Amino acid sequence: MREDRDLTQQQLADALGITQRKYSYMETGTQAWTDEFLIKLADYYHVSIDYLLCQTDNPKRTP
Q1: Which residues contact 53 (CB under 8 A, 6 or more apart)?
Q2: Average pLDDT for consecutive 10-residue bins of the chain (63 residues)?
Q3: pTM, whole model, 2 decimals?
């Protein structure tokens, strides 16, 4: 999703309030995503966490 929106790791890390290095570790799987950052990422992209985790093809959140 980051690359589809032409965002750099630094831009997204800034939006999430973390360092680029930490974001890189999470994006490459070196470090696991925490619940806190999954929520922030879902909020940033306006999608559900299930969509981020590839558990659904529907990006919409349920109310």
Answers
A1: 38
A2: 95 95 95 93 95 92 76
A3: 0.82
